[in-house]
Design goal:
Shape: globular
Helix content: 40-55%
Number of helices: 9
Strand content: 15-25%
CATH architecture: 3-Layer(aba) Sandwich
CATH superfamily: P-loop containing nucleotide triphosphate hydrolases
């Protein structure tokens, strides 16, 4: 079974997906982290996004792995643990532009489908239910108020030692939403058969319980 969780930034997708997977005993695949790994690599190598040959080489050399210990998921890029670095502001500010590239999305979608083949899997992102797994058995689309999303993002940044005002973060979030929704390749949009979950007033546990119960009701119904 594939559980697809889509939605814009800071709606609780990653945390919820990880906990939903744990509750159900499914594999968790953080697709957003994969795009952040590519973005980090692009920034480290100072690659111009219009340089197709350099991007092709970078993608061919890319090795992304996930590790899990005591419920914590770590992300490894070419043998280096980059779990914290891919969450920093510089990567966040560039990930939409990198993710919009067809070559990047095609390469990572291929990897995602290979990993999720023949196993129960929870995947989160922006196009899981529309492009990566359009036939997923159950799809969720998370939304939340912009200010609440900015407050959540601010807490994440503070944990990384970074500080940014709520107003600046709201502007960043709206800019990213616009980029993600208007890109030509695999834009952010809600699948017609997705269940919308407004997480503005929900705790993580509440939104996780809602999704887990929906999945369980589907499996019991079958």
């Amino acid at each position: 079974m594939i559980v697809a969780i889509d939605g814009p930034a800071a709606t609780g997708k990653s945390t919820s997906a990880k906990l939903v997977a744990q509750n159900l005993g499914f594999t968790y695949l953080d697709t957003g982290a994969m795009y952040r790994c590519v973005t980090l690599s692009v920034l480290r190598h100072n690659i111009d996004l219009s340089n197709n040959s350099a991007l092709t080489q970078l993608l061919s050399d890319l090795n992304i792995e996930f590790g899990q210990k005591n419920g914590d998921v770590s992300v490894w890029l070419n043998g280096e643990n980059v779990s914290a670095e891919i969450r920093q502001a510089d990567v966040t500010n560039h990930v939409s532009a990198v993710s919009a590239l067809a070559s990047v999305r095609e390469a990572l979608v291929r990897i995602q489908r290979q990993i999720a083949a023949n196993q129960n899997c929870v995947l989160e992102g922006r196009d899981i239910g529309t492009i990566v797994f359009p036939d997923a058995e159950i799809k969720f689309f998370l939304v939340a108020d912009d200010r609440v999303r900015a407050e959540r993002r601010q807490l994440d940044l503070k944990a990384l030692g970074e500080d940014k005002s709520i107003e600046a973060l709201i502007a960043d979030i709206r800019r990213r939403d616009k980029l993600d929704s208007e890109r030509d390749h695999s834009p952010l949009r809600k699948a017609e058969d997705a269940i919308e979950v407004d997480t503005t007033q929900l705790t993580i546990n509440e939104q996780v319980d809602f999704m887990v119960n929906k999945v369980k009701s589907l499996t019991i119904g079958n």
